[in-house]
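FIELD: query
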Amino acid sequence: MHVIAFEETPVWQKGMQLLKIVYSVSRQFPEFEIYALTSQIRRASISILANAAEGYGRFTDNDKASKYIIARGECTEVHALLLMAVGLNYVQHKDLQKAIHLCNEVGRMLSGLIRHYKKKI
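FIELD: result
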């Protein structure tokens, strides 16, 4: 099946699942974190999707790979911020298992896209 829109890609669909969980979980953070951890984790999860979509829309293989690299970095950032939230006792680790799994899954998908487009350069 030929993918015709970025929102049909598996990386976008998994990234959207992650975004929804991040927003849900971050509602549990203390109010004083609204401009710090809450904002940062939400922006990073948005950036995963934005860069994945932008990479899909780029014309050259190098441009595509570059955007997917940024998205992968943002994915790692979300993972780290989730662990920080656990370390600060804002949420329980067990409540983040699905989000952490999705971070790893999206990261693997992005790594595959990066390898694919880097080979073509």
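FIELD: remark
The mean pLDDT is 96.
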